[in-house]
Specification:
elongated, 9 helices, mainly alpha, 0% strand
């Protein structure tokens, strides 16, 4: 009976002791474990183990670039903003140059019209050129014209007095052909003459014909351009045109002053 009570008391104490054991986390218990065998440090005059050699330090890179690299470095490329601004300036300069050319053509046309109104004889063919054209008409127009008339008289003479009859188609074709040659001779006489008052030109006038044809082509082109300029000028008043003329002269004078050297500028100021 006593042995049973002692056994019960011992079990009760063990259960209470187990109940009051604090719960320690596994991590703390794992870190708190000690090795079973600890190596004792040498004592007395024993040789201590040699320490590990230090790792060699990495060489420091110099921040300053070498002169060779700095010399080989490419120049800085322009930024996109500068490129766009330069292109815009070029477009503005081209547009302004085009406007100036149109304004110069308009002013030249107005000056020409004013000169023709003041001097009515300016558009007249010079007398020497007119005489030169008349002289050329004698061979190129007179010979075919009188030749056609003489050929017609010859056909009539042979048919009347010699009893030689020709087909009417032959008579008509030959006389009409000579008349056409005479009409073409009028045009060639005008175009082959030298239109330069101080130059007589060649006998046949082949070179003058080529030059005069080119002059007529360029004149027709100028006439079309003048017609367009007159249409645009109708939208502007005389005050606006004169103001544009003054502004153009001011810009031209400014550009001319820029192109002068320092010596030329000083010479102009002294004069």
């Amino acid at each position: 009976m006593r042995s049973i009570s002692v056994t019960a008391a011992v079990s009760f104490l063990c259960s209470g002791t187990v109940a009051f054991i604090p719960v320690v986390p596994k991590l703390a218990l794992r870190n708190s474990r000690q090795p079973l065998f600890v190596r004792n440090k040498p004592k007395g005059f024993g040789k201590a183990p040699a320490p590990d050699p230090p790792e060699p330090a990495a060489p420091e890179q110099s921040a300053a670039p070498s002169p060779g690299r700095s010399a080989q470095r490419a120049p800085d490329s322009p930024s996109p903003e500068n490129i766009g601004r330069k292109r815009l300036d070029n477009l503005r300069a081209e547009a302004q140059s085009k406007k100036d050319e149109e304004l110069r053509a308009l002013l030249e046309l107005r000056d020409t019209d004013a000169m023709l109104r003041e001097d009515t004889g300016a558009a007249v063919i010079p007398e020497r050129v007119a005489m030169r054209m008349g002289k050329r008409m004698i061979p190129f127009v007179g010979l075919p014209l009188f030749g056609g008339m003489g050929l017609f008289v010859a056909f009539w003479y042979f048919a009347t007095y010699r009893d030689v009859e020709f087909q009417p188609a032959i008579v008509a074709a030959s006389t009409i052909a000579l008349l056409v040659v005479g009409l073409l001779g009028i045009t060639y006489s005008l175009m082959s003459a030298s239109w330069d008052d101080d130059r007589d030109g060649s006998a046949l006038g082949f070179d003058e014909l080529s030059k005069n044809v080119d002059s007529i082509k360029s004149g027709l082109g100028r006439s079309r351009e003048n017609a367009k300029i007159r249409d645009r000028a109708r939208l502007l008043t005389d005050e606006e045109i004169e103001a544009a003329r003054a502004e153009l002269k001011r810009r031209e004078e400014k550009e001319r002053r820029k192109s002068l050297s320092l010596e030329e500028k000083l010479k102009e100021e002294l004069e």
